[in-house]
Amino acid sequence: MTAPRRFTVQGTNNAFTCVHCGAEVRPLENGSVRNHCPVCLYSLHVDVRPGDRANGCRGPMRPVGVEHSGKKGWVILYRCETCGGEGRNRAALDDPRQPDDWNALINLSGRQS
């Protein structure tokens, strides 16, 4: 018996316009879900669990730091500008069409706050 999935991602890997910088963001091609802007790294506070889009806040999530995980690679740390909630998103450096901006990630690494 397999364990149930912890989150739902079907139908959530969609293109969007970044609310912070206005960049047109394309869906990821690697089977995961695009959940932040690859240009400025901002996200939206939309999930309770990864990919469920069940959070009613919808506030902008400001990138506040970055850490490296042996399993997930680079992980961006966020704080919601509306409610103060915190979150984490795996960086999408390997996307062939629109990878995260490496320089933005490096700049973020010096701003742990």
Which helices and strands appear, and what pairs or packs with what?
Blueprint: E1 16-17, E2 24-25, E3 43-44, E4 60-69, E5 73-80, E6 86-90, H1 102-109
Antiparallel strand pairs: 1-2, 3-4, 4-5, 5-6
Describe this structure in words.
This protein is mainly beta. The chain has one domain. It contains one helix and six strands. Strands 3-4-5-6 form a four-stranded antiparallel sheet, covered by helices on one side. A two-stranded antiparallel sheet has the order 1-2. A hairpin with a 5-residue loop joins strand 5 and strand 6. The longest helix has 8 residues.
Give a short summary of the structure.
By secondary structure, the chain is mainly beta. Helices cover 7% and strands 26% of the residues. It has one domain (16-109).
Low-confidence stretches: 1-8
Number of helices: 1
H/E element sequence: EEEEEEH
Strand runs, count: 6
- Order of strands, main sheet, comes to 3-4-5-6
Derived from helix and strand composition plus strand pairing, the structural class reads mainly beta
Summarize the main sheet.
Answer: 4 strands, antiparallel
Q: Mean of residue pLDDT?
A: 85
Distance N to C terminus: 43 Å
Percent in helix: under 10%
Percent strand equals 25-35%
How would the global form be characterised? globular
Number of structural domains: 1
Rg over CA atoms, rounded to whole Å, is: 14 Å
Which terms summarize this structure?
mainly beta; 113 residues; globular; 4-stranded antiparallel beta sheet; 6 strands; two-stranded antiparallel sheet; disordered N terminus; single chain
